[in-house]
Amino acid sequence: MTLACLNYSLTCYPLPVTVTAIGHTVDETLLDKLADKRFHLPHDYGSRLHAIAEKLSHERSNSRALLIDEVKKDVTKQFSEQVETLEKQLKRKMKSLLKPRKRIKNM
């Protein structure tokens, strides 16, 4: 495909083209002029995509770790509150069970 053909075919379609990596640093196509970002070589474009993927993966790992820490804190807090509530209930039950025993002994 010649550059003239490529330029003509781009004008026939209404879809926006945002990235180029054609590999011609000397020639500038219409596609290069329309692009939001131009890479000189396909390898450069691939390297940039790889860097973006690595960054997103790192951010995802960090956000997952933060979420896990928050869930652990929340579960620990809820567990502690439940244990405290059960201990209070147990003390009340023990007191209520011990009161009748004292009355029986006093008789």
In short:
The chain is mainly alpha-helical. The protein contains 3 helices and 2 strands, in the order H-E-H-E-H.
Output the keywords.
mainly alpha, 107 residues, 4% strand, rod-shaped, single chain
Task: Describe the protein.
By secondary structure, the protein is mostly helical. The chain has three helices and two strands. A two-stranded parallel ribbon has the order 1-2. The longest helix is centred in the last third of the chain and has 65 residues, at 42-106. The model has no long low-confidence stretch (mean pLDDT 78).
H-E order:
HEHEH
Main sheet, how many strands, which sense, barrel?
Answer: 2 strands, parallel
- Proportion of residues in extended strands: under 5%
**Structural shape:** rod-shaped
**How many angstroms does the end-to-end distance come to?**
110 Å
Strand order of the largest sheet: 1-2
Whole-number mean pLDDT:
78
Q: How many β-strands, per DSSP?
A: 2
The total count of helices amounts to 3
Query: Would you tell me the structural class of the helices and strands?
Result: mainly alpha
- Which range best describes the helical content: under 10%, 10-25%, 25-40%, 40-55%, 55-70% or over 70%? over 70%
**How many distinct folded domains?**
2
Poorly predicted runs of 5 or more residues = none
CA-based gyration radius: 35 Å
